[in-house]
Amino acid sequence: MLIPCPVCGMRDAGEYHYRGDATAERPPLAEEAAEPWVRYVYERQNPRGEHLEFWQHVHGCRQFLVVRRNTETHEVFEARLVGPFGQGE
Amino acid sequence: MAEYSALRVITEGLRGNRGWKPAWRKAEPKPRYDVIVVGGGGHGLATAYYLAKNHGLRHVAVVEAGPIGLGNVGRNTTIVRSNYLLPENHDFYEWSLKLWEGLSHELNYNVMFSQRGVLNLAHSPEQMDVAAERGNAMRLAGIDADLIGRDEVAQLCPGIDLSEEARFPVAGGLIQRRAGTARHDAVAWGYAHAADRLGVDIIENAPVTDFITEGGTITGVVTPRGEIRADKVGVAVAGMTSEVMRMAGVEGLPIESHVLQAFVSEPVKPLVHCVVTYGAGHMYVSQSDKGGLVFGGSLDFYNSYARRGNLANVHDTVSELLAIFPNVARIKLLRSWGGIMDMSMDGSPIITPGPLPGLYLNCGWCYGGFKATPASGWCFAHTIARDEPHALNAGFTLSRFAEGRHIDEAGTGAVPGLH
Asked: Among the four A41, A78, B221, B370, which has the fewest Cβ within 10 Å?
């Protein structure tokens, strides 16, 4: 499996560390109800097909990426940096 | 006379083997059953068997997407053990091991359960302490465990590199002598056979494409072979749990599907006499009766529904095997394959009524589903038939995550890939 790092270019998945589902959204820190936190920490859609996920390029630029990948075929569609630098031009 | 016996083999041999019947019928779906079990893997077949055997239900169907035995029940590394640390897991897995001990007779089908022992190696004094803690916890729960030193490791399994030159020299280990391996295909076939003879319909090549819901209650399933209705529907589909439950309208389960690879080498003479696990990494190996080394390691560590993994993990797992058995460096790998694990958020399973009326859920087996097959079927059948969990699976709820009642053997927290 190859992942196109926006900084380093196309690299083997072995250079990256998987950091899990990128669609789970953390509630605001002021959130006091348990339910949104339970949803964030424990509940996953776990789709068979397209999936947004975090990967860190630990053996490269060490940047965190959001990767769109197919969980059934392992096809990687795109990878972008997390945060403001990943928003494009 | 039992359907399968030595005497039967002889008499059939004299009669030209014309009297054998198929081990299970190719059942046609009926319009209605008492219980439908979705998933014809080890757990689903065991559930159907115990529904018929322990609870007297005569109208039970198992619907399976493909043929019997091609899922995880035929893809694991066949290890059976009950060397757990936490109380909920002690009782459940020990009951499973006790069922394994009588399983061939119970099913009248030889599952080739071999109590050759499972040896967890420890590579430092600190790991020996951790092994002692686990062993003591097991013994307090009435489960056998022995802490052994390097000399006894040498006697048990002379092939292990016990030299000081090893990358992580072996200090000793914890052995559960009643643990071992079983012939995984025979477990699927045996449960299918025994369930069939109690009247269970095993409906193959019938993937569930939808659930039938009436007034919020699940009342059946839709398959390409027609609609099938039932009073109760149990789901035991391992790595496909999230996708199947989505059809019933249940989203956001505490499950991620990950690919786990396994390997078998070409056959060699007896070398690995018990199941050996590597303590300085994560690798487990046993030798099949045919002589192949059957081994596996960690997940590939990313969500996956592909029954194949990447080469990096092959390299890691083989390196770990060579760290304790350097003498197998030049034998060839015959095959590698992958299975899809239903990794739960605390590493422990879920066997529960719900989450919808008429629906029952069995999932979250992580790496450890094979050894659990008999007890999982036993407890899931009880849960379905009585509408309440058995004492052995009372802790395996779906609500435990929100309640903070995790059963986290490894203590790694809510990162499914790490369990």
From this structure: A78
**Residue numbers in A near B303 (CB within 8 A):** 21, 46, 51, 53, 71
The amino acid that residue B192 corresponds to is A
Residue of A nearest to B312 (CA): A14
Chain B, nearest residue to A19 by Cα:
B302
Residue of A nearest to B342 (CA): A46
Rounded distance, CA B25 to CA B201, Å? 8
Contact B115, B180 (CB under 8 A): yes
Give the C-alpha separation, A55 to A61, whole Å: 12
Residue where the block lists tokens 């967890």: B120
ipTM exceeding cut-off 0.90 for this assembly: yes
Where is B175: in which H helix or E strand? strand B172-176
Of B254, B305, B417, nearest to A48 by CB-CB distance is B305
* Pairs of residues, one from chain A and one from chain B, whose beta carbons lie less than 8 Å apart: 72
Q: Give the model confidence (pLDDT) of A30-89 as tens digits.
A: 999 999 999 999 999 999 999 999 999 999 999 999 999 999 999 999 999 998 777 654
Q: Which domains does chain A have, with CATH numbers?
A: 2-24+32-86 (3.30.2270.10)
